[in-house]
């Protein structure tokens, strides 16, 4: 198994690591059992993701997908962020080994989960806007 | 570069390579041939067989060269199971995959398998084995020492139980051979697997000790090599290298044990003193001289390995990400670790060639790496 240079760059120098104290959108996906947890903090103003930070427990790919996903949605509108796919995450990282594709799914879901939280805080049902707002990564450990 | 993954493999020792070279060049003959170069090759194999036999306290006729330790395990298990009447076989939950998957294969093909549990240090309780034995038990296989956590089993006591019930007893000694004293008579085992590349020999060669009178099927059909039980033109250079590596390991055994054990204990103490929230996996004293296995809470093993690699340190982990599945090591789960703790494991396996300076460097690099990953982890709260 070999990581691309881009993955190694984002793993070695992850962008946007940390927490946002006054975040108004927080999402967490994955589980301890599978060895991957991503937590995303956002500061959303006027429908724009002004700031974003992450904390991740996981492998090299989990860190790299978290890092690139935060880069891809920072400064973007909610609508743009919601259109982020795991495929776009993989492409931005110049590929992922097949066994690590689930990390890109996790990154996509982490962004959606934070945005769902943003709507919930305002009393808006996120389901019609975000779609699945839960942690729906298919993890064999959940069986 | 600091190489501390000697349980994965070791570099070929220079003396070993020197002994191998002629059999890769001018002494290229087929050992089954009657002329000079063939006879030379055959003699070299006999000498290597004698070296392995001596190292194990066995007879030369009880040593069968194989293509690897995994092959020796596969042959021992399937070969004994298929030549017996009974359909019940026993092993443990912490075996190497070569053993575990062979048992699972038999389990899917008409055999009933009992997997013995281990305690938190990774030890099998002999009473559990006694309780598991049945009328139709036809094989017991328990590893001598574990490849991940280094725990050394009470093989003599376990093999004695097998003997009382006249059940063939196999042990996977791939990690133990050349690192701790092993004598097949003293241990009372019927079959024992070993490998060359864990002791400074080449990859692609192992051996199976089969006690005289043990019923086992032929492994490979073809020529009359390996007493007619394992056909294939011999890997002459590999076998010569194995014999030489085994001889060296036995000659230096006491010295190497003393040196590696003290390095191991020094390193363990240093890590425990300098990194909070860590857990030593495996038995504190009944463990392989070179084995260290720590779990660092709140972080994941593959990330740890990648960061160590960036610092030129090569080690191993039982995290899921290094196994190609989502599950962490079956060994770490079997000793009762929570999944997230198992994911954060690091195995360092020293050889006699590692130094105190290297151990110091690893600790010095490890401290900030663990802290950096913890600072990035949502599970960690200062």
Overview of the molecule:
The complex is a heterodimer of chains A (143) and B (382). Chain A is of the alpha+beta class and 143 residues long. Chain A has a single domain (5-142), classed as Sufe protein. Chain: A, CATH 3.90.1010. Helix content of chain A is 41%, strand content 19%. Chain A is built from six helices and three strands, in the order αβββααααα. Chain A has helices at 5-12, 60-73, 78-82, 86-92, 101-121, 127-130; strands at 25-31, 36-45, 48-57. A three-stranded antiparallel beta sheet of chain A has the order 1-2-3. By secondary structure, chain B is an alpha/beta fold. Chain B folds into two domains: 14-251, Aspartate Aminotransferase, domain 2; 253-375, Aspartate Aminotransferase, domain 1. Chain B has 13 helices and twelve strands. Chain B has helices at 14-24, 36-56, 69-83, 97-107, 126-132, 155-164, 184-187, 236-251, 253-274, 301-310, 330-334, 339-343, 356-375; strands at 2-3, 63-66, 88-92, 112-116, 137-141, 169-172, 191-195, 206-210, 278-280, 291-296, 313-314, 345-349. In chain B, the strands form three sheets. A seven-stranded mixed beta sheet of chain B has the order 2-8-7-6-5-3-4, sandwiched between helices. In chain B, strands 9-10-12 form a three-stranded antiparallel beta sheet. In chain B, strands 1-11 form a two-stranded parallel sheet. In chain B, strand 3 (88-92), helix 4 and strand 4 (112-116) form a beta-alpha-beta unit. Chain B is globular, with a radius of gyration of 21 Å. The two termini of chain B are 33 Å apart. The chains are: A alpha+beta (143), B alpha/beta (382). Chains A and B meet through helix 1, strand 2, strand 3 and helix 2 of A and helix 10 and helix 12 of B.
What's the helix count of chain A? 6
Record the strand order, biggest sheet of chain A: 1-2-3
CATH architecture of chain A: Alpha-Beta Complex
CATH fold type of the largest domain in chain B: Aspartate Aminotransferase, domain 2
Radius of gyration of chain A: 14 Å
CATH class of the largest domain in chain B: Alpha Beta
Beta content of chain B comes to: 5-15%
* Beta content of chain A: 15-25%
> What is the mean predicted local confidence, pLDDT of chain B?
96
| CATH superfamily heading of the largest domain in chain B | Type I PLP-dependent aspartate aminotransferase-like (Major domain)
Q: Low-confidence spans of chain B: pLDDT under 50, at least 5 residues?
A: none
Major sheet of chain B: 7 strands, mixed
Q: Tell me, what's the shape of chain B?
A: globular
Element string of chain B (H = helix, E = strand): EHHEHEHEHEHEHEEHHEEHEHHEH
Distance between the termini of chain B: 33 Å
């Amino acid at each position: 198994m070999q990581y691309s240079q881009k993955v190694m760059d984002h793993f070695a120098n992850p962008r946007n690591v940390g927490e946002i104290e006054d975040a108004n959108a927080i999402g967490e996906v994955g589980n301890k059992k599978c060895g991957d947890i991503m937590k995303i903090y956002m500061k959303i103003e006027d429908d724009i993701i002004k700031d974003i930070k992450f904390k991740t427990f996981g492998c090299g790919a989990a860190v790299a997908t978290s890092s690139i996903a935060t880069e891809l949605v920072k400064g973007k509108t909610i609508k743009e962020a919601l259109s982020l796919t795991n495929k776009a995450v993989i492409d931005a990282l110049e590929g992922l080994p097949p066994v690590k594709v689930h990390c890109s799914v996790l990154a996509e879901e982490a962004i959606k989960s934070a945005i769902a939280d943003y709507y919930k805080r305002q009393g808006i049902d996120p389901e019609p806007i975000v779609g699945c707002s839960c942690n729906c990564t298919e993890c064999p450990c959940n069986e | 570069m600091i190489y501390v993954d000697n349980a994965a493999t070791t570099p070929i020792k220079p003396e070993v390579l020197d002994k191998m070279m002629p059999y890769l060049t001018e002494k290229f003959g087929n050992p089954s041939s009657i002329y000079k170069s063939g006879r030379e090759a055959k003699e070299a194999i006999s000498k290597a067989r004698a070296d392995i036999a001596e190292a194990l306290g066995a007879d030369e006729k009880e040593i069968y060269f194989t293509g690897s330790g995994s092959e020796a395990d596969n042959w021992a298990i399937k070969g004994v199971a298929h030549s017996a009447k009974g359909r019940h076989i026993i092993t443990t939950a912490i075996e190497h995959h070569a053993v575990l998957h062979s048992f699972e294969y038999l389990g899917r093909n008409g055999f009933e398998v009992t997997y013995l549990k281990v305690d938190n240090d990774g030890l099998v309780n002999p009473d559990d084995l006694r309780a598991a034995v049945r009328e139709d038990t036809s094989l017991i296989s328990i590893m001598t020492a574990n490849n991940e956590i280094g725990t050394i089993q009470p093989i003599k006591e376990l093999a004695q139980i097998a003997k009382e019930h006249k059940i063939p007893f196999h042990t996977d000694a791939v990690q133990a051979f050349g690192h701790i004293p092993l004598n097949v008579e003293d241990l009372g085992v019927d079959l024992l697997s070993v490998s060359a590349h864990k002791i400074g020999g080449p990859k692609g060669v192992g051996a199976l000790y089969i006690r005289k009178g043990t019923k086992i099927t032929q492994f490979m059909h073809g020529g009359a090599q390996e007493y007619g039980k394992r056909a294939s033109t011999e890997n002459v250079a590999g076998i010569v290298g194995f014999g030489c590596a085994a001889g060296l390991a036995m000659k230096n055994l006491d010295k190497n044990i003393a040196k590696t054990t003290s390095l191991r204990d020094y390193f363990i103490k240093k890590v425990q003193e300098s990194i909070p929230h860590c857990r030593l996996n495996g038995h504190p004293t009944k463990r392989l001289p070179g084995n260290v296995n720590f779990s660092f809470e709140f972080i994941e093993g593959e990330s740890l390995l990648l960061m160590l690699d960036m610092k030129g340190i090569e080690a191993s982990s039982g995290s899921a990400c290094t196994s190609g599945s989502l599950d962490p090591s079956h060994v770490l789960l079997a000793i009762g670790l929570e999944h997230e703790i198992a994911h954060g494991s690091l195995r360092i396996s020293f050889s006699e060639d590692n130094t105190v300076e290297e151990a110091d460097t690893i600790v010095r690099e490890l401290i900030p790496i663990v802290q950096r990953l913890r600072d990035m982890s949502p599970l960690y709260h200062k």
